[in-house]
Amino acid sequence: MQKILFVCLGNICRSPVAEGIMLHLIEQHKLHGKLHVDSAGTAGYHINEAPDQRTLHNAKKNGVDLSKLRARKFENKDFDSFDKIYVMDESNFVNVTRMTKDKNHHGKIDYLLNVSHTGQNLPVPDPYYGGEQGFEDVFHLVYKACEKLIEFHIK
Ligand code: 4NP
Q1: Dihedral of CA 53/129/86/25: which sign?
Q2: Crossing angle of helices 53-61 and 15-28, rounded to 10°
């Protein structure tokens, strides 16, 4: 069982999209016993809240239901509970990395888009302060990376 955690800042826009798409693909490919996924935010602004309305609306439009997800804060014990920690941008990377001095933990952290765009450390841009297109772009960027993750686990 591979355990994967997706991390952004608020856990209401980007990382819930990654979690929801993965849950959707896990269901589709019957990978329940092989993959466990979750998401969290480095900030605690939105703890226990559902994803942002714009995120919910966009994901639903694209066939993914995020309504049952609730925001939580990234915790130090997540380094032990998860095999991989995929962050959305450089700021998430810095925030997560500086929470531990353990090199084994550091090895678990990577940019989500390195799954689809190897070695480029590309960000999933934060759509929070922008318009609808930002949410649509996030969905498709994250979807492509999630499909790759699933491919790795099917092979
Ligand atoms: P997320 O987006 O990190 O993708 O969930 C944000 C959500 C909330 C805030 C910023 C970014 N905020 O400032 O409340």
Answers
A1: positive
A2: 30
* Ligand 1 in reach of 8 Cβ (< 6 A): yes
Check: pTM over 0.85? Answer yes or no.
yes
Question: Is 8 one of the annotated active-site residues of the chain?
Answer: yes
Instruction: Give 126 Cα–ligand 1 centroid separation in angstroms.
Output: 7
Q: Tell me the pLDDT tens digit for each residue of 80-115.
A: 999 999 999 999 999 999 999 999 999 999 999 999
- Decide: 11 in ligand 1 pocket, CB within 6 A: yes
pLDDT tens by residue, 14-71: 999 999 999 999 999 999 999 999 999 999 999 999 999 999 999 999 999 999 999 9
The sign of the dihedral angle between the CA atoms of 139, 145, 147, 149 is negative
Residue nearest to atom 6 of ligand 1 (CA): 10
Q: Is the CB of 126 under 6 A from ligand 1?
A: yes
Query: Cα(24) to centroid of ligand 1, in Å?
Result: 23
33 lies in which domain range?
2-154
CATH at 81: 3.40.50.2300
Domain count, the chain: 1
